Amino acid sequence: MPRRFRSLPAVFAFFHDLPAVVLGFLIVLASIGYSVAGIAVIGRVEPPETRHTYNDIVGFVIAVVGVVYAVLLAWAAIAAWETHDRAEMAVEREASLVADVADLAEGLGATGVAIRAEAAAYVETVLSTEWDAMTSGERPEAAWAAAEAMRALILTHQPANGAETLVQDHLLDQVTALIDARRDRLYLADYGIHPVIWSVIVLGTLLIVALSFFFGLERRRHQVLTSILAVSVALVVFMIVELDRPFMGDMAVDPEMFRLIAERLAAGAPA
User: Domain limits at 62?
Assistant: First the structure.
């Protein structure tokens, strides 16, 4: 399970701020450069003819270490993917609930008009203020005022008849669910794989590629094969980086559903 932490280290913020194409290119380029340079250095220390004699041992060690590292890498990739999916579902649920509150509020007369206005303010605050904060890895607080105002209006409303009592009960359930969905989104806004685990992933990548340096092969062929290995692992790491923070980077969760609801509320149409 990824661990939540409030402060995003500067190096991770830098990577998330880069366009995905640029970051992917840099990671692939670095992996190739590491492979080519590593084999060149090993070749100066020990010639391929000597290394060739223990190819079987190197292969066995890579197989054992590779299995352990593959489990870690798969776990990190799945964890990042699931967190991203959970964030998307939380946003969709929150947007749907605020739309339901705005629509149901029409059954409470003048109080309903005020509730609908607070719902519109809530959506606008999420779009104009909170989303920018989340793209920086922060946990925003701005829309809490509108959420609490909606709940207060519902709780203090005096129903004029049985129909309004029924609507009030449904609204209270919906606004409570909305606040729960909001908490889930805010929780995920600063949620990601811990830097210690990232250190293990990066170190493991360097080690698994470095082990392949010890094969005794013709230099060019060796560099090509090792570069393919390094790029393959690097692409998985790149995917984890992009998915790790669900509200940051080019693959960040999009507030499209909030935008659609904002447009409908501004037009006076059912959300």
Answer: 18-266
